[in-house]
Amino acid sequence: MAFTENDIQKWNTDFASASPAEIIAFALEQNSNAVVTTNFRPYEVNILHAVTAVDNTIKVIWCDTGYNTPNTYKHAEDLIKSLQLNVKLYVPKQTSSHRDAVMGIPGIEDPNHAVFTEQVKLEPFGRAMAEHKPEVWFTNLRKGQTALRNSLDIFSVSKDGVLKVSPFYHWSDEQLDAYLEEYKLPNEHKYFDPTKVLENRECGLHT
């Protein structure tokens, strides 16, 4: 897929006030080899609904760490059925029970935390992207989440050169809540990410 830094800057200017549907449709016009990634955390339903409303065949990559709450797993199953998601599931090569016995969930200051993050999130994600080789990657990154995400925009480029598209980048929680109400979509708040612990930490997927 051919695009330049000038293209990215222009698109971010042109689509700054565009609707998610307009952004998604434009991105798919650039290249239809696309995926949307999800972990079914709070407000993930917004991106899943918006993307599949434009293309209901798009591949939905779910990297399940194995440490989700029962509520998150139920939420995921409900969305998979109601939105008819084309889910491609990726899990760590080691079970959570095995890992719990030999390592547990290391604290963020523990040197093993990097190993843990690689095992439960980065390796499955890398495997998924290597297998599907997308040219366009839809995410639900938003401004204000972390310092890194504040430096991005609606359109950015991943470290592997994939066009990363965040249709809700400029949206607030209140706007996302209004979207959920408009489309009568459920949200999920009982979510736990063992690789981040703190909301303002990056897990490594977007760095």
Automatic annotation (TrEMBL):
Q: Which residues cross the membrane?
A: none
Domain Phosphoadenosine phosphosulphate reductase positions: 46-186
Give the pathway annotation.
Sulfur metabolism; hydrogen sulfide biosynthesis; sulfite from sulfate
Report the GO terms under cellular component: cytoplasm
The entry's protein name is Phosphoadenylylsulfate reductase
SUPFAM superfamilies xrefs: Adenine nucleotide alpha hydrolases-like (SSF52402)
Per the record, the GO terms for biological process are: sulfate assimilation, phosphoadenylyl sulfate reduction by phosphoadenylyl-sulfate reductase (thioredoxin)
Q: Which family does it belong to?
A: Belongs to the PAPS reductase family. CysH subfamily.
Task: Tell me the organism.
Answer: Cellulophaga baltica 18
Family annotation (PANTHER family) = PHOSPHOADENOSINE PHOSPHOSULFATE REDUCTASE
Query: By its UniProt entry, which Pfam families does this protein fall under?
Result: PAPS_reduct (PF01507)
| Top-rank taxon | Bacteria
Q: Name one GO molecular function term.
A: phosphoadenylyl-sulfate reductase (thioredoxin) activity
